Amino acid sequence: MRKNLSLIKSIFAIASIFLALACTEPFNVPLKDFEDILVIDAFITSEVKQQEIFVSRTFITGNAVQQENNAIVTVVDDIGNSYAFSETEPGIYVSDQMFGAQPNVSYSLKLTTSGGSAFRSGPISISADAELESITAERTVLENGQEGSASMT
After folding, report:
1. Is the separation of the CB atoms in 125 and 105 below 8 Å?
2. pTM (whole model) above 0.70
């Protein structure tokens, strides 16, 4: 009986391996003329501060991400303001002046790489800031008996 159980376990293990290998098919990604992709990470907030934009390039798998240096980065709005950004570290661009996104104003990002490629985002606007009306703390006890507190807004 014990011998049969061991044989069944061995057969089950081998069958599992074959099933796992049989379900795997190679996937070849079509990469026509793919050299790299420009990645722009820009999150402009309503807080009046020096805003940051991160610019890099990504390559085919296995190659490291490369920071995009010496780009010309500008954010413009639909009421005539233009905010220039300067590179403070490789790939990190900080606004030359402090500003915050205003509700119902559209903003666009303009970027020209050191190689001369130009990009412009579509206009984006934010809605009015959400206001916090109240916040309270309440003593709670978790299922395991541990005491804590919970915030209620």
Report:
1. yes
2. no
Give pLDDT tens digits for 4-40.
555 565 555 555 555 555 555 565 656 566 677 889 9
CA dist 109 and 73 (Å) reads 7
| Residue found under tokens 């005539």 | 80
**Residue appearing with tokens 């413009």:** 76
Closest CA to 50 of 81, 88, 77, 80: 88
Among 3-7, 12-16, 102-106, 147-151, top mean pLDDT goes to 102-106
Who contacts 34 (Cβ-Cβ below 8 Å, separation ≥6)? 60
CA contacts within 13 A on the Cβ side of 26: 2
Alpha-carbon dihedral sign for residues 20, 23, 26, 31:
negative
